[in-house]
Each structure stands twice: as structure tokens, then as C-alpha cells.
Amino acid sequence: MEEPPTLNSRPKQGSQALLPEIGVHTDGHHWLRGRKGSMSLLPDLPKANERKCQTCEKVQARGRSAPASRKQPTEIKARLRQQDARSQDARSQAKVTQAEEPAPQLMQAGNRKGSMSLLPEPEAPKLPQQGVQAPKLPQQAQVSLASARARHVAEPKFIRTARSRSSSRSLPRRREVAERQEEVSLQEAASIALHQASQEPPMLNSRPKQGSQSLLPDLGEAVAPPWPDKIEEEVQKASKLSLADWTEDKNRKEGHHTPTSGTQTPKTKAVSDANSDSGPDCMERGFSLSILDSLLRDHLEREDKGSSEATNQVPKPVVVVSSEVNPWSKTGGLGMVAGSYGYEFAMRGHRTMVVSPRYAEYDDAEQIGCAKVWLDGGEHEVQFFHLYQDLGDGNGTDYIFVGHDCFSREGLYCDPKDGKEYPDNLFRFSLLTVAALEAPLVLNIRGSTFGQDVLFIANDWQTGLLPVYHLYKYRLNDTYKNSRCVFVIHNIRSQGKYRLSKFPIDSYLGLPPEAIEFLQGEDRSLGNDCMNLLSAACLACDKVLTVSQDYAAEILNLKSGSGLNGILQQNGPNRMAGIINSIADDWNPRTDPHIPANYTRSNFDEGKAACKRELQKALGLHQDSGVALLGFSGRLCYQKWVPLITEILPWLLTDEPSGVLGRIQVILMGKGDDAFASHLSNAEKSHLGKVCGYVGFDPKVEHRLLAGCDFLLMPSRLPQMYAQAYGTVPIVHETEGFKASIVGLVDEQKDRETATGFQFCGFDVNCLKERMYQALEVYHKKRDLFKQIQINGLETNDNWTEVVSDANSEAGPENISMERVFSLSALDSLLQDPEGKAELRHQLELDELEDKRPKYTSHHLSKPVVVVSSEVNPWSKTGGLAMVAGSYGYEFAMRGHRTMVVSPRYGAYDGAHYVGYAKIWLDGREHEVQFFHLYQDLGDGNGTDYIFVGHDCFSRGGLYCDPNTGKEFPDNLYRFSLLTVAALEAPLVLNIRGSTFGQDVLFIANDWQTGLLPIYHLYKYRRNNTYKNSRCVFVIHNIGYQGKYRLSKFPIDGYLGLPPEAIQFLQGEDLNLGDDCMNLLSAACLASDRVLTVSPNYAVEIQSPEGGQGLHGILQEKGRQHRMAGILNGIADEWNPKTDPHIPVNYSIRTFEEGKAACKKELQRSLGLQEDPQAALLGFCGRLCYQKGVHLITEIIPWLLQNESSGVLGRVQIILMGKGDDLYANQLSNAENRNRGRVCGYVGFDPKVEHRMLAGCDFLLMPSQYEPCGLPQMYAQAYGTVPIVHETGGLKDSVSGLWDEERDRETATGFLFCGFDENMLMERMYQALEVFHKKKDLFKQIQINGLRKNYYWPQAIDEYERHLDWTLDGDAAVS
């Protein structure tokens, strides 16, 4: 079991020998040499410790890389220019030699004819020579260049942007991005993209037209190139462009420089001619396929009529690097893409290598070498496993799988049991990237290495470091001088963001400090401390490709660019293109072995009818050939619109006079979010015989679904093309790849011969209904038109797929027997084939139960858990600690652990019976404590044993303080020492339900009151051969309370009964007590086996001097030992507006507007506030103390209530509830007295009132100075109440702020302010109230985002289980 990463550990800096000398293992495996271009040191680049800049020295002192100076990129490009000049001379000489040799024979691949390019090779770009005057710029360009230089000089080093949280970086390319974003509007960006697309392929935003001519010039008969040729063209462009000319190329596009007019190269002229004839939309639609699965084509035939020339260029080796590759590893389209690359480039004659992690032992993959990679301050050995796929005719693909322990896990990127990303993913994929760069150099494959002259194709953020390593570690050291990098964006939303302070560029990644130019990104949460792998790749690579033309255009704008639109706009058409995805050969109804009846265009009516009949029979649907059968197959998540589909089901199934609705059946298949899975289950239960909801996924079922359905609803980018291939009509949202792959039926006459489906605009259920009604009307009343749409789709597929493999054509359809099944497991029969390889589908999760099925299963479920806490809900409670302890008792028992919770008996608790006693030595004598037991039966054999420790010292009015004076009890050390030792005795001496818990247990101690438990556990038990195999986990809920006492007053031996050497743990530091300080919290951190905190951000904060309260050094050391982590607390199931018995009206996400309005009205009435539904109702519920920021709220009340012309302030009401400091209690009372009907100040606390406040308020205020976790902000989101919080601790982890209204619209759940100051709070309050009063749609979306969040305990307990496993698998911290 792998340990979690260190929270704030940093690798050592200044290591000299990053790699050993050259050598070969005795078994023949390679290991890296200290050559230039390897992962060794870069002697020619400045070291981090040689930098003299004051700013850099300060940054380096903090352990992170300094920003690069302005001159460095220029120096790098100058060096590259010299290299490229030398390379150009070598290439020119090679070309002369090559011209004298006979042209090579054209390669034959199956029935494919001709060369791979109809056009001769373009000349390489010429570099300006020394002594030759540069071409004179046109006047307009000179003015642009002069103004640009003026701006460059005039601007300060750091440019502040309006309302920005941090300064913009001074890096040159980042400045250009910022300038471009400021100067170019979204409309102008789209126009630029369209204009550039019309001037030079590939087209970024053009939709292919039917029947248009080829891009090629008149070379006999015009032939549209198969799309892999389009990729060849992009590859050629990337390989020819000089990286040193990058800036020069960008300046040309921006008007700063124009090339010398002269004769065009043949290829440039050809493209120009074609564009001048046909414009940008001149590509045949049938060939607008993609990098994805069109690359899986076996044989693509292309006539080369009229062409007597063929390229004499030897294809460049291609190295594809991907985090997954089909069929060995796959989570989605990326795996299919990488597998397609490996096949298609090899079939085109390239020597092809595909590099991917070795997640498991793959058959026939043999180890052929190993390498040592420097990363995270040390060397790590990776192994290379090789598998050769022979494709015939001398073509084949070399698959290289990189082996390392970090890849050997169940999931590729996330733990499959809880869905959370692995914390060491940066380490894992950095290893992959460097190994991929080494493989072509060191691996002798089939007689030779791939060598340096290769083209890399990196995919998505996981390989985003490849272009950066390629530049700094290799090209700048005369390795891979002529190689190029192409980077493919499959999903721009996943960018790979990490903290630069946690993963320094130099000491962790082994890159020089100037690499920050590429790696430093922007993020609202991380600020300038953000490393962004996707943006780094876009900046450093030679060409960026995306998976469709429309997607390429969309990500250029601010809304869809996910913060990278400025960077992508810089690339333009020369260095950016979109290529529409395609489908694999096995999606062919003529040969598909998974469907009951095969069919072609000529007999698709009969074939689809047979498939539909068998599908209905197997799924328990009414066998009616006249109904419209609608299917959905995809991931169950909000992005796939699952809630919209289930929402319109009643409307679809309602009979109405027109005959359009009613005669419908629906099949929904997928897996993902539990909430959406329940939608499928409920839909089937409500409409038996008309709806089948299947939670699960099997590719064979998807084949049968597409063959049998009439319509496919809102699929992802590939299924809509599968659907057309099977004559199934897609109904999709008009966005991204859909627009390029589906022709919508807009005008029934004009689009009759071209339409392949239906598209709707707008992320709205009404837009979907409108298009659904049109589609069903065509199906039921215009059968000829519906048939023509099916034929159009089938014909499009014929263009895509020429020939399928012989194996598929010989296999024929499977003889599937489909039995009629009437149950929620209806699709089980479809998941079985004659060979028995298909798996039965998973049982539907019953989401209506409160207990959620655990996603992570501990391998120590047999280990008893003993929770020790000074309070436990519902018996004793002062704050969040009691809630957490009560949740521990419930959740660990529900997971299968035998669970005990030990807490003081502050009163006579109903149902708790005396079960025994123990005598404890303390303060020089023995003291007897009694044990009272209460068993809570949770069903299914699970339950929790609550043990209450009885003693006179606990029987008082308060838990920790005298309720009359508010002062701490003077004997608290005595009281909680008794509790601690009693908790250690209870598992040994109490016979509970037939047996004791025994010694082999795991203790979870909480806060300073139980801080002595790890000390007693070590000195009194483990060192006396008791609890030898047990472990202690200590949880910090609030580091501000540490339990400090005078050692001289409470001697370790005479009072606590511990040996003198225990002082090494117990002695702390304090300004008042000095060395005479005993610190229980620091002792627990030192002696426990693992320290946990109640949120990830709080775990980071308390390791800093500002947040560590003097313990940051201890906690940093714990982090370096991999024994420290933060886990966000969960909330109890009772906090659910659908079932809450304390609120006037229950509501769900679909009815929250009406429900909250009713709750708000009742709350206003009951508290004496004016019943105004339009007033913004603000609530605060918490302890009345400085730390909770109560004074900030009371100070701004007059400002909030004042009327002003904008209409933002004034219409506000405030409810303040809490108890604590008298000063703040008086402030609440005074605020209410001065503002009757608008302010309610309630000094006290009632949990029922808290529930009603969260249901009725519009906003919840939590301006806490610090908040380790915080629960109310999570309650608020569950009730659709928007939190306004200080950006600290768990508040930062659990509230997504609205920083940018466009970008954060779909993710924001509240408002965060920085700085514990009333002015910062006022600024964010004004924004929130402005959104509430003037942007109702945005406010509603924020509420919906919060309602969708899942902060319940099953999510948190998964993390606890994982850390408990790590604790139990490891050695004890102290022996």
C-alpha cells in the first residue's frame, strides 16, 4: 500500500550528480548515461544557486523556483536559432545527396494505392543570414511594431489588472497573452480565427460543405484526401517549422513583420490555389474525420489520377505518448486515440512507437531495458516493456510500456473506490514523460534505436511536461535538435494544476528556473503559486491540435477556453488546428458480431426492425414496432444532461391527440453519479414496459442499443457518429464536435438530402422538448423523411469506412438468445455471450436509503476501532468535535468495523447501563472510574458500542468551563487524564456482547483533551507488551487549543505516573511558561502514528509559522514522514431539505425555489421581520467570539441597511444567532433594538432554529478569522443557501467562489473574501447582493451548484479508511 505524498516536504536542492555514468546492466538492460540531452545536469544553463537577483533569492529561500528574467527567453531563442542554422545547412546538404539517389518505391498497404502526398516537399523556412539586411517592413507593420515596443518600455514590471487578486507576471509571453486578451474581444477573436482559417489550412471554425471540391490543386481528377492525410499535413507543418522562429512567426501573424514577397513553395501555392477557388469550406464532408478512430482504418483507397509525382521523403518516426492506450488501458476517448495513432501512422509508413504506463502485466510485453530518471530529489528506476504489433507489408507498431510501482494500481488516474485523484499523479506522469523522451534514444528495438530525428505526439495534461523537458533537457543540449512536438488537447477543462511551492521546478522536476516561463499558470485558488501542465504544453509545443474544428474555435474564446484562450489565440492557424473525431472499424452494422441481425444500406429497414424487436424482448419493453425507441448511453453526470432526460420522461410518455407523444419507449444506460443512477432506477419503476434504466456499461450492449434504437439522445462526441453508422438518428446539443459531425434538420425541404439528425441550441429543457417534438413528429407522421435522414447517416458512414478486417467479416453475427425479462436487471441477458466473457451488470444502488454504499473498502475491516473524544453527539456537545465523534461511531460501524466510542459521562444518559469499573493511578493515588455501556444497533449486524466513563469530576454543569463564570475548570488535566487511561483500559477489560475488543485495535484520539492517549499508549502499554500491534491516530480539530500546563505543578512521574523520559514528548514551548510548559497537543503529534486534520487546506496552513501556533516545525516533520494529512469533515444525513422534519416545507433541487420561498416567508413571520420575498435575507449562526468574525458583521450592519441609488443595498434583512462572549451578545441585542423588523439578534442556540435558518435564508455569513473545517457552510449549500465566507481552512476547501461570472458560473457555490477585514467583507458582500438583486439567473445557478454538492459523510469516511489502512500497514511512529 503506497503512502500518501508529503504535504509540504521538498526535495533537497543542489544535487550535483543527477545520473550515473554510462553503463549497461549485466542483463543487457540500458540505463541512462550522463550525455547531453538526458536527464543529467545542464552545465550550460545557469544554476538556481548562481542567480543574483534579490527577488529570486527571496523566492528560493522559500523553496520554490524564481521567475525567469526577461532576457532569458531571448537568449534561449538565440541559441536555438544558431542550432537551426546549423541544422538547415545539414538538411540542405542531405537534400542534394537525396536528389541524386533514385526515388524509393511507393509503399503498398492492402488495396491502398499511391504515395502519401500528392504535393512535393515544401522548402524549409530560410533564416536571415548575417550581414544581409532584413526585409523592409510595410508602414503599417512598422507602426504596429513601434507601438508594441513603446508599450513594452512603458509598462511596469508587474501590471495590475482591475479587481485582480494578484499581480500579473512579468514574463514576456504571459504579457503578450494578457495584452491580447485585453485588446481582442470575443467577437474579434472569432473573426480572426475565421479569417486565418480562410487563408491557411487547417480550418478552425469552418463547417464542411456537402459536395465541395478538394483542397488540392488540379492534378487530374479532384480527389478529397482521406483524413489521415490531413494529419500528415499537420505533421509535416510541425516538423518543418523552426522552434527558433516561433516568435518571428507569431509577430508575422500579429502584423509586426511580413515575409519577403517571392515565389511560393509548391505546397503553399497548391493550398493557396485551392483556397482561392473554394474558400475555407472546401473540404468534402465525408472525409472530415479525425485524429481519433478514423486512424483505425485498415485500408484507405485513394486514386492518384493525373499525378506523376510522389513524395520521396522518408516518413519521420512518430512517438506517441499517452497516459492510456486501447486495448491495454482505457477510460475514455483518449485511450482510443492513442491506439488509433499507433495503428494508422504505422500503416502510413512511419516507424511508430507508442509509450504508455504499464498499469498491469500485459501479455506478450517483454522487458527490454530500464532507465534511471531524476525526479523529486532522487533517482527512480523505470522499466521498459516492449510489444510489437505486426500489421503486415513491413508495417508495425512498437508499444513501449513504462513500468514502475506507482503505476501498479487499480485505477489509471483515480482510486476507483472513491473516485478521487491519486495525490502523486504529478510524480507518476513526470516519470512517464521523461521515460518517453529517453525510450527513442536508448532502446534497441528490432536492430536499431528510433534515434533523435522523431516527431512526438503528446496527449492531454498527463504528458504536458513533454514539450518542456524536450526543450530544456534535450534541444538546448544538442539532442533532438530536428525533432518536434505536437500536443493534442482532448479536454481543456482537465489541465493538471499543482502548487509550485509544493513541487518546485528545479528541485522536484529537475528543470532550470527559467522554465517557469512555461509552467507558471493562473488559478483563482492557487494564484501565482499555480503550475499548469496543459498551458505549459500549449506554450512550448510546436503545434496544438484539438479533436474537432468547432472545439478549436470554441476554446479560443473566454467562455470555453478555461483560462487558456489567450495562449491558444497566439498559436493561430499555423500552430493550432482542430480535426474532427471519427469511429473505429468495428462500428459497422454489416459486420458487427454483437448485434442479432447484420444489415447494409439496402436492407437496413429489415435489419433494424429485427434488432429493435430483439432489444424490446430482452429488456421487457412492449414489443411494438410502431413506437419510437429512444436510447441514451453515456456517463451519468450533469454534463451529459441526464437530469434533463429524466425530467422530460413524463412529458414524452403522455398520450396526446396529435399522436406525436405517448408511443415512445426509452432505454437509459450508463454509470457515474449515484444521484443520477437513482434517476434511472426510479424512471424504470415508474414506467415498467416503457422505460429501461440500466446502471452499468458494456460495449456489447452499446452496439445492440445503437442497432435497435430509432433515436440516440444527447450522446458524447463518438456515439453520435456510431448512431449514424447504424441508421439511428441522433438528437444532440449544438456544441463542439456535434456541429462538425451532424447536419441538423432545420428546413425539411432544403436539408432533406443532407440532414443526419436533430440539433438544439441552449442549455435548457424547453429547447430540448422543442427539438424532441420535431423529431418524433417526423418519425410518426413523415416516415419517408425519417428514412431519408437514416440513409444520409448511413451514407456518411460509408464514406468513413472503406474496408473492415477479414476477421470481422468472416465471424458474422453472434447467435444471441434474448429472453424476455421484467426486472431492473433486464439487461443482464445482453451482457452474456456464448463464451461467457461478458460480466453481469452491477446491482442498482438504492440511493433512497440514507446509508450510501462505500466506494472504498478497507482491507482492515476486521480491525476494531476505538474513538476517544471529550464530547459526542447527541449526549454532549459544544461544537463540531461532538458531531464528528458521533459520525465516527456511526460511519466506521456501517463500514463493518467493530466500533467503540469512549467519552465522559457528564449526566445520567438514558439506556446506558453499568458494565464495569477500573482503578487508575493518578496524582499519587488510585481513582475508580465506572463504565456505562449503550449499544446502538444499526442493522445488518452492524452497531456501535458507546462507553461513558463515570466519575464525580465529570458531573458538573459544563464540559470544560464553569457555565456561571465562563472560566476553565482548574482540574481539567486531571479529568481528561482519567478519561484517557480509562479509554485504554476499556478494550482490555470490558466484556461487551460476549467478548472484549482486545489488544489488536486502532485508537482515534481527538484534540488536546485526549492528547495524553498516544503517550500512555506508548509508555504504559506498548513498552510492557500490551497493544503491540495497535496504532494511534490523532485528529486535530482546532490547533488553537493545545492543553498547556506547568510541568512544575504537574510532574510527569509524580502526577501523571509516566517515566521521566516521557518529557521528550510532553515538554513544549510557551512565551509565558517557558521551558516549564507541558503541551498535550504537541505531545500527541509527536507520539501518534498519524496526524489528521479536518480539511486539506487547514493541514497546509498549520504547517506554516502563521497558522501552526508554534507547532509548525513538528507538523512539517510529520509531513515529511508521510504521517500527516487533511480530510474534509462530512455532514450528517439529517441535513437534507428533502427529509428535514424541522423546516416548514421540504424541497429538492427541482422544487427548491418554491420550497425556499415558503421557508423564508415563515422564518420572517416567526422572527418578527418584514415579510418581503425580495429582501436579501442574511443569516449567521455560531459561537459569539472574535474568531468567528462577529464584530465584522455588526460593524457593517448600518452600511448594509442604508438605501442607495443602485438598488443593491437597503433591501436586506439579517438574522444573528449564537451564544458566547457577553460583548458580542450585547451587540446582537443592540442591533435588533435599533433595526426592528429588519434585524433579529438571538442570544442562544437551538438546533431546530438553525435548520429553519438554513432553509429560509438567502445567504449564510461565515467571516471566521480561521476555520479548521466548518460545517454550516456545507449545510448551507445542501439547502440552496449561498455562503459568504473568509478564504481560510476548510471554508476554502468546501466553497467554490464566484471570481469570474462567466468562467465560474457552472462551479461557483458561494463568495469568498481574502483578508480578515470589514472592507474586504464589504466588497464581497456588495458583489453577492448585486448578483441577488440584479442577476437572478446567476444567483439561481449558484444555488443549484451548491445543491448538487455531496458533502455527506460517506465521501469523507472513504479518506479516513484509506489513511487508517496506511497507518496499519506501516510501522509504528515510535517504538
UniProtKB/TrEMBL annotation:
Residues covered by the Starch synthase catalytic domain: 318-569, 865-1117
Subcellular locations according to the entry: Plastid, Amyloplast
Leader sequence segment: none
Biased composition (Polar residues): 258-278
Keywords, ordered alphabetically: Amyloplast, Glycosyltransferase, Plastid, Transferase
Residue ranges with Basic and acidic residues bias: 72-89, 173-183
InterPro entries hit by this protein: GS/SS, Starch_synth_cat_dom
Pfam families the record matches: Glyco_trans_1_4, Glyco_transf_5
Principal location class: plastid
Region of interest: Disordered: 29-183, 197-280
Protein family according to the UniProt entry: Belongs to the glycosyltransferase 1 family. Bacterial/plant glycogen synthase subfamily.
Protein known as: Starch synthase catalytic domain-containing protein
Organism: Durusdinium trenchii
